[in-house]
Amino acid sequence: MKYFGTDGIRGVPNEKLTPTLVTKMGMALSVLECKEVVIATDTRLSKDMLWTSLATGAMSVGLNVKYVGVMPTPALIYYSFKHKVTGVIITASHNPYTDNGIKILNRGYKLNETEEFQIEEYIDACNESFVKPKIGCLEMIDVKKEYYQFLQNHMHKTNLKIAIDCANGATSVTAPEIFKEITDQLIVISNQPDGYNINKDCGSTHLNLLIKTVVDHNCDLGFAFDGDGDRVLCVDSNGKIIDGDKLIYLLALYLKSKGKLRKNMVVLSIMSNLGLIESLSQHGIHAIETNVGDKYIIEALNNNKLSLGGENSGHIILPQILHTGDGLLNSIFIVNLLTEANIKIEEYFDSVIMYSDKMVNIKVNDKSKVLQNLELSNKIELIKKELDYDCKVIVRASGTEDVIRVSVMAKEQELVNKYINELVSLIQSI
User: Fold this and answer.
1) Exposed, middle or buried: residue 49 (CB in 10 Å: 0-12, 13-18, 19+)?
2) What pTM was estimated for this model as a whole?
3) Is residue 104 classed as helix, strand or coil in its secondary structure?
4) What is the rounded average pLDDT of the residues 23-48?
5) Average of per-residue pLDDT values in the chain
6) Helix H segments across 294-412?
7) C-alpha to C-alpha distance for 362 and 145, rounded to whole angstroms
8) pLDDT category, 346, cuts 50, 70, 90?
9) pLDDT digits (tens, 9 = 90+) for 260-284
10) What is residue 23's three-state secondary structure?
């Protein structure tokens, strides 16, 4: 694809994401045969330039635009699905404020490759002759009420003391209000966005602030969301990180105990920890592994008609409730099961022995050249043999940056460090 990456279109505003390109993108939404476009943003500085450009393009071809303001991605997905309209979220998720992106939804679902290709074709062919005589209108709307009603169907009161980190992102406008209904003991941090501080030393990619908050305030647990609210990670009462793998493990055991874990199977990505997979197996739960990316998780969930899947990044999907990852929804479920069981979250992992792992990002000029290198392929296979295949060695390209991601997983940290250093040196020499 020329413009689309693994999760929409991302880039630096005024470089890749120019007002001209985004205006054409707004016009191209007409290929989805919709009459209405609903737009939301996260909190980063460039949001206003981008959403107004997109809205201008859409209205110039006769589409009516509804702008909802700052709102988490899952909330817009829910609205787009419920009302069967085109949705657009202006966000770069967990990236810093200097980046931004555009995710397009067709009636609540991310675009397929055919739809992406049609939009790209339209953008490249776009000129003034494409403009229709009909002009669309702009309306400001509030979708929070509908989203809150959806979440409230799954909420229960708890006595747990909880801290939440909103990443100075989109959940700043939703999570505090929801959690105040769940617990009377709530600590909220990173909920004062200024356009520049989204994901800055906070949120699911920077957990130190949440760890300190949980420990200092003697909380039972803490939740950290990412910039657009589709991910969540957790911190236990001791300040220990509970990543997406462990949260999936927790949810899998709970659903299985209720007879709601379909086929006793879950979907994980290839990055998921081998220790987690072994622990799931001990409970009679089988894991299907996919490539990295929520679209692959969702595809496997749908193909196998399963009820739980996700990634260690904290993007977790409960498709019987909502067909996309929702950090706020998942945190509500975790609070519910902990309250029902009346035990601390850390007690669930006493018997889980996670493998050591490490990931390094390497800036490169040509990702395909690295991935096609024969010496690198041979080195990966050699490492696997030396570790008797009781490991994971993954070298993959980022879908949004000129970066190769190298990860090694094994039982001993010393071996992980050794082999990842060897792979990094080799890749840097290619």
Assistant:
1) middle
2) 0.92
3) strand
4) 96
5) 94
6) 294-304, 327-341, 367-371, 374-386
7) 44
8) very high
9) 999 999 999 999 999 999 999 999 9
10) helix
Residue 263: closest CA among 285, 242, 243, 279: 285
In the annotation, is 425 catalytic? no
Contact in structure between 426 and 376 (CB atoms under 8 Å): yes
DSSP conformation letters of 197-247: -TTTT-GGG--HHHHHHHHHTT-SEEEEE-TTSS-EEEEETTS-EE-HHHH
pLDDT tens digit string along 349-369? 988 999 999 999 999 999 999
Instruction: Output the DSSP codes for 274-314.
Output: HHHHHHHHHTT-EEEEE-SSHHHHHHHHHHHT-S-EE-TTS
Compute the distance between CA of residue 327 and CA of residue 307 in angstroms, rounded to an integer. Answer: 16
Residue 29 three-state SS: helix
Residue from 30, 53, 80, 93 carrying the catalytic annotation: 93
State the amino acid at position 390 in one-letter form.
D
Distance of CA 313 to the CA centre of its chain: 7
Intra-chain end-to-end CA distance of the chain, in Å: 25
Give strand pairing partners of 223. Answer: 164, 234
The helix (H) or strand (E) run that includes residue 116 is: helix 113-125
Structure tokens at 399: 């879908």
Token pair listed for 420: 């990842």
pLDDT digits (tens, 9 = 90+) for 392-429: 999 999 876 789 999 999 999 999 999 999 999 999 99
Q: How far is CA 307 from CA 71, 220, 313, 325, in A?
A: 26, 28, 19, 13
DSSP 8-state code for residue 52: H
- Smallest CA-to-CA distance from 403 within 376, 427, 425 is with 427
